[in-house]
Amino acid sequence: MINKEFVINIENLSKSFGNFKALDNLSLNIRKGEIYGLIGPNGSGKTTTINILFGFLKADDGSKIEMLGHSVPSELSNILRSIGYVPQDLSLYMDLSIIQNLQFFGKLYNISTAFLKSSIQEILKLVDLLQFKNRVLNKCSGGMQRRTSLAVALLHKPKLLILDEPTVGIDPELRYTFWDYFKTLSTEQGTTILITTHYLAESVHCDRIGFINKKIIVSGEPHELQKQIQEKNNTKELPSMEDVFIHWNKQISISENIGGIK
Amino acid sequence: MGFQQIIAITKKNMQSLIKDRRTFGLLIFMPIFMMLIFGYGFGQGVKNIPIKVVNFDEGGTGIPPFFNDTYFSSIGIESLKKSESVRVSEIPIANFSLVNEKSKIYGGNNYYALIIFPENFTEDMPYPNREINLEILIDASEVQAAAAVQSSIVEMLNSISNAIGNTTHLKLNYDYVAGSPDFRPIDTLAPGILSFAILLFMILNVTGGFTKEKTTGTLYRVVAAKTSKADILLGYMLGNSIIALIQSSLLLTISVFLFNLHIVGSLLLLYLVLFIYALSCIGIGILAASFAKTDIQAFQFIPIILIPFMFFSGFIFPIDGFPEIFQWISVAIPMTYSINVSRAIMINGLGLGDVMFDFIMLLVLTALFLSIAILIFKPKK
């Protein structure tokens, strides 16, 4: 049975590379219009999860994945054009201009010429690149390149936006701008957003977060998670997200006798 | 200058070389491979060019000091058989049809020359005033092969002269089935240069470009937009094959105006053949990219593909002198056929019907390489 309530519904997702288990019975679900932050250290399985969602990697047997009401990977082709993808690497043509990149990917998404034109205009305005649209990408600053990468993923007005560490290596100011974009998309257009990050502080921007270390250690609303630990430790001040993460990671280290975060 | 630094850099380079097994293998294999190719290609001159003889010689009536059983033609054929330049096979008179044989004299296909010994070869040999016509049908479009045939004929004349104790008065009637006696090496090479240039560009552009799509991640973004494998490959094929034809036009223009190359056959046909050939090169380029994880690995494929294509396709020298194993490689190389067909069109003005075998082989190999490329290419991580 396909669960219609969730935009993404993952049950018992495992992935092994030889003897190494990158994901171990990961389960998570994301509701429509939600900003869900998948938060964890490097090597915790964030990118592996996303690669499986897009069919770039094959999950182990027994894993069950549904996106936008379709089973993945068997029905992936039905929904790919409703998803926006911002990979961890820029994944853009550096020798083309900003607008040439947008036009190329727009055509791949089968967007009509007229609609593409207005869509590009609108998105360039959103990410503040309108005046630089003819600049070749390798002459652009890192921040502009990142914004172009986001713009490409938004061209076809996706219902679901999946972003793999979109804020890595960009300055704090632009990071805030990015989170503004995401909030706008979520509240104004009802876009569901799955975002991975290893910046724990960013989790406060999410509607819900899941701490990942090969599986979801704990998930919930950021504020709730903080309050939970506060009550547990009986402290006056609300603990930081880092404290919350360290707390849960310790629990799992103790119970499974594996190394926690470094 | 710091001794420690120099040693550190040297050691680091050695360590990464040993870690990268592919590069290490290439380091051992490539020089051996090249020495073999150059050794067989250049080291011993052109050898084993296939030719045929048909012998109508009816012998002599026995003028002393020669006896009834003396056949000068046999002395000639023996000499040809001993010659390293050519490989002789004899056609029995009963099976001989001039029209049929003439159609087979096209180097890439069958053989390069047919020598016809006339009935009076022995009978009239002792009489300098009697005319003996030795008919030689030859494909002179492959300059080196033609030279090898001619040198074997000179050897033959010498051994006959030795036998009769006098210079022969044979009249050599050359019939140029393909090419002409004033053919220059550039005339032979030009069709091959077209094919080689296309290969070079395709390997650099397709293998390099495709590997870049993988390493920068654009490939995955393209796939995430529901672009099918076939669409990606067709997109690569269309653009690059058009570039191949533009490139060919440039090369043809230069060779006609600067080197006075004569193009006898249909340009349209030539373009068709080069287009198909370019597709096969794109298939090979994508195939190479499928096995390359990094730019460096992609670069390593360039000599691995380029060298066999260059030497085993008959581009620079006829492959008949190579050991059999290398000749088998030449069978599987699309460039072998694209050169044969474009030589036939450009130099001899032949149509596809005359080189059907080569054309079909080109089609088959193109289809084969493209299918393998489509099968092997997987946009996965």
Please give a structural write-up.
The complex is a heterodimer of chains A (262) and B (381). Chain A has 262 residues and is an alpha/beta fold. Chain A has 8 helices and 10 strands. Chain A has a 6-stranded mixed beta sheet, sandwiched between helices. A 4-stranded antiparallel beta sheet of chain A has the order 2-1-4-5. In chain A, strand 4 (64-67) and strand 5 form a beta hairpin. In chain A, helix 3 packs across helix 4, helix 3 runs parallel beside helix 5 and helix 7 (222-233) packs across helix 8 (241-256). Chain A is globular, with a radius of gyration of 19 Å. The model of chain A is unreliable at 257-262 (pLDDT under 50). With 381 residues, chain B is an alpha/beta fold. In chain B, 61% of the residues lie in helices and 9% in strands. Chain B is built from 13 helices and 5 strands. Chain B has a 5-stranded mixed beta sheet. In chain B, strand 1, helix 3 (72-82) and strand 2 (86-91) form a beta-alpha-beta unit. In chain B, helix 3 crosses helix 5, helix 6 (185-216) crosses helix 12 (334-346) and helix 9 (267-290) packs parallel to helix 13 (356-376). Chain B is elongated and about 90 Å long. The chains are: A alpha/beta (262), B alpha/beta (381). Chain A binds chain B through residues 51, 54-58, 77, 80-81, 83, 85, 87-94, 105, 108-109, 152, and chain B through 216-218, 220-227, 379-381.
